[in-house]
Write a structure and sequence with these properties.
Layout lengths: L3 E6 L3 H12 L5 E6 L5 H7 L4 E4 L8 H11 L4 E6 L4 H10 L3 E4 L4 H28 L4 H4 L10 H12 L7 E4 L6 H9 L4 E5 L4 H9 E2 L10 E2 L1 H4 L4 E5 L6 H13 L1 E2 L8 E2 L3 E6 L4 H5 L5 H7 L2 E4 L10 H12 L1 H5 L6 H6 L6 H15 L6 H9 L22 H15 L4 H8 L3 H10 L1
Parallel strand pairs: 1-2, 1-3, 3-4, 4-5, 6-13, 6-14, 7-10, 10-13
Antiparallel strand pairs: 8-9, 11-12
Helix pairs in contact: 4-20, 14-17, 17-18, 19-20, 20-21
């Protein structure tokens, strides 16, 4: 494993030495750079390739949050971890939005703090190794880059996603794309399709109507006077995107599984066996695994769809893309909007808002600000929206929670909820705590009791 260059930045020299000692006792190769002067941060980063920064928030002259913002923008691959004396959820969330990956409390027990530090160091090393593999095996291929020009991004997560998408372009297996509303799932599907014909079919609970659109039907079927060709016929050698596949009922799921398993279909009302020459892409707003566990989604269909599985990250996980997305969206709006002078604190303002509607909501916000601003972006509109945090339920998908039978106990439910939060946050206890409405310390205590 790589020796991690770790910068400890805190205005209390004694704490810097103590933290350095705690880290040196861990079974991880670390080269520690210590500094009690936040003004030295910029010069250190210019002279040493830093992998991890452990920093305090309350420091003289330069606030720790300002350092997080600047480092995250200039050095997006550096892992930033706050080690603060403040055990405050709002502060932790603010740091997360600025670019920190974890939040530790100075007053924590030594053993617990060392465990958290070891996890952070090991995760940082894994991320470095992963980026190395991506750089080695997923190098951009100029021949295919034009297909992905509509995915406006420079974030590492999106670049990894694009790299993976390029490797599966010529596979015939189905693709499953998960992502919140407005993240660009259909845009990614179009990139995968390249120059091939592509259409979207929305999934819904009316399986009969959905199957008629998918398979088509013969003359006289259920009283229809004329036959209708289904999308599987119209899109031969093309791509079909089945949107929100989680909404399919059990019968439609069984039909879809048979189609993918046997590679042929029969239009409704006929016995004809026609080959499927259409590549299937399924999109979902949610993680399907809980649906499978609860028996609401066929396990065999889920495994069939998961041969190639991708998750499009929400905008709040790739705020470095705002500097690219805003000019692009303004250019789409009008030539005048593209040339408009942007408010000085625009990107800081946008980064403070979580955008539950993601890029679609960002586009709508810029459109509203432009038309209300009289040939410039209305700072009042932007401030009003970004300073008003969305309702906590606004980003929740409008489907019923599925409980297993028998009903779990409260203790079992808490355990499942914590595990699901950690899964959604890729193991980050700080992010999971924010998602659950707990402080990181409170979540640690609950995990210890599991």
């Amino acid at each position: 494993m790589k020796t991690l260059n770790t910068l400890i930045l805190d205005d209390e020299p004694v704490w810097v030495d103590n933290l350095s000692q705690l880290i040196s006792e861990l079974p991880v190769e670390v080269n520690i750079i210590k500094s009690s002067d936040p003004k030295q941060c910029a010069s250190i980063l210019e002279s040493v390739e830093i992998d991890l920064i452990l920093l305090d928030l309350m420091m003289p002259d330069i606030n720790g949050l300002q350092i997080i913002n600047e480092v995250h923008c200039l050095y997006p691959n550096i892992t930033l971890v706050v080690v603060s004396g403040m055990d405050n959820l709002a502060t932790a969330v603010e740091c997360m939005r600025a670019g920190a990956s974890d939040f530790l409390v100075k007053g924590s027990e030594t053993e617990l703090l060392q465990q958290r530090l070891q996890t952070i160091l090991e995760k940082t090393n894994l991320e470095i190794n992963y980026r190395s593999l991506v750089d080695r095996y997923f190098e951009p291929n100029a021949e295919f880059d034009a297909n992905y020009a509509s995915l406006i991004s420079r974030s590492p997560k999106m670049q990894q996603l694009i790299g993976y998408a390029k490797t599966i372009e010529h596979s015939h297996a189905p693709i499953l794309i998960q992502g919140e509303t407005g993240t660009g799932k259909m845009t990614l599907a179009r990139c995968l399709g390249g120059e091939h014909a592509i259409e979207r079919l929305h999934c819904h609970s009316d399986s009969q109507q959905w199957l008629q659109q998918l398979l088509g039907y013969s003359r006289g079927y259920q009283g229809f006077g004329q036959p209708q060709l289904g999308l599987l016929h119209k899109l031969q050698d093309g791509y079909l995107v089945l949107s929100q596949v989680e909404l399919l009922d059990s019968y439609a799921q069984s039909v879809l599984f048979e189609l993918l398993n046997h590679h042929h279909y029969s239009p409704l009302g006929t016995d004809a066996q026609l080959p499927i020459r259409t590549r299937i892409i399924c999109t979902t707003l949610v993680d399907l695994q809980p649906f499978v566990d609860a028996g609401k989604f066929r396990a065999d269909l889920y495994y069939k769809l998961s041969v190639h599985r991708m998750r499009v990250p929400p905008l709040r996980e790739r705020t470095e893309d705002l500097e690219l997305l805003v000019p692009h969206l303004l250019q789409q709006l009008s030539a005048e909007a593209a040339l408009a002078e942007l408010p000085n604190n625009l990107y800081e303002l946008l980064r403070s808002y979580p955008f539950p509607g993601n890029i679609s909501e960002l586009s709508a916000l810029l459109t509203e600000a432009w038309y209300q601003g009289e040939e410039q972006l209305s700072l009042q509109v932007l401030t009003q929206r970004c300073k008003t945090q969305p309702n906590s339920n606004s980003a929740i998908i409008s489907h019923k929670v599925v409980f297993p039978n028998p009903l779990p106990t409260l203790t079992e439910t808490n355990e499942l909820l914590i595990k699901e939060a950690l899964n959604r946050c890729n193991g980050s206890q700080k992010d999971a705590a924010a998602l659950l409405g707990l402080s990181p310390a409170a979540l640690c205590r609950r995990i210890a009791k599991l």
